């Protein structure tokens, strides 16, 4: 029986030339990524890079008080572990699985060795890192200048872009933690979207009923980040089918 899982479900891995991809293949390990799993801790040296396929990972900045909020998300379009090839080895952010699914884990040394060959992987990783930086910078601006309703719409739309379904397994408390706001604020914003007919929700689940309506309520940050990812990684999708299939 053919496995439903493949490294090619991650856009960065799928864009690699066959020769580079096959050098990484022996070190790519399929892993289940469960909700709440801690992939990387702030200040600790990373031993692996992670390529999500169906999971979504949230990058959090953690304050000395222990409070944290999301600064970026990573899905099938990206990688968790950019500090490995950027030379920093550690990062002030924490990586936690936001949406359960699967992905591929790669030993740090295997990634570094391939990056140092200065081939296609290196160019892809640098362009992805630039797009990730754009996402991080807009996240801070959005928090300061846009309403909680707009931020919630941005978060919902960004999450939907990484999922095959409109049904999100996510509590309002967890969303509040992602956005760094009080749960009551998320409840009020979600209630307004429900009254508009954009979403429905029950405990632990949010279903997007009208994505176009969400798009009319979201701030400009969503479109700016999406456009930047498309600009920097536009040729990634064009090459997904050219990489040999992997079982």
UniProtKB/TrEMBL annotation:
SUPFAM superfamilies: cAMP-binding domain-like, Winged helix' DNA-binding domain. Residues 146-212 form the HTH crp-type domain. It comes from the Bacteria. Transmembrane segments: none annotated. GO terms for cellular component: cytosol. It holds the Pfam family HTH_Crp_2. InterPro entries: cNMP-bd_dom_sf, Env_Response_Regulators, HTH_CRP, RmlC-like_jellyroll, WH_DNA-bd_sf. Keywords: DNA-binding, Transcription, Transcription regulation. One of its GO terms (molecular function) is DNA-binding transcription factor activity. PANTHER family: CRP FAMILY TRANSCRIPTIONAL REGULATORY PROTEIN, HTH-TYPE TRANSCRIPTIONAL REGULATOR ARCR. This is CRP-like cAMP-binding protein. It comes from Panacagrimonas perspica.
């Amino acid at each position: 029986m053919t496995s439903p899982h493949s490294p090619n479900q991650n856009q960065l891995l799928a864009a690699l030339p066959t020769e580079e991809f096959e050098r990484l293949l022996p070190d790519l390990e399929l892993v289940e990524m469960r909700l709440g799993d801690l992939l990387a801790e702030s200040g600790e040296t990373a031993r692996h890079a992670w390529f999500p396929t169906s999971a979504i990972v949230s990058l959090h900045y953690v304050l000395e008080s222990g409070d944290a909020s999301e600064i970026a998300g990573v899905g099938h379009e990206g990688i968790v572990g950019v500090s490995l090839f950027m030379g920093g080895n550690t990062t002030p952010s924490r990586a936690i699985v936001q949406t359960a699914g699967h992905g591929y884990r790669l030993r740090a040394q295997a990634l570094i060795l391939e990056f140092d060959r200065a081939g296609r992987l290196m160019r892809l990783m640098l362009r992805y890192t630039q797009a990730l930086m754009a996402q991080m910078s807009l996240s801070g601006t959005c928090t300061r200048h846009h309403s909680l309703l707009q931020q919630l719409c941005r978060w919902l739309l960004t999450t939907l872009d990484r999922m095959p379904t409109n049904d999100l397994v996510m509590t309002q408390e967890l969303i509040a933690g992602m956005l760094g706001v009080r749960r009551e604020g998320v409840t009020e914003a979600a209630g307004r979207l429900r009254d508009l007919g954009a979403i429905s929700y029950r405990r632990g689940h949010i279903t997007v009923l009208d994505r176009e309506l969400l798009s009319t309520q979201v701030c400009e940050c969503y479109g700016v980040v999406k456009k930047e990812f498309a600009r920097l990684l536009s040729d990634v999708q064009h090459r997904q089918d050219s990489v040999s299939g992997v079982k």
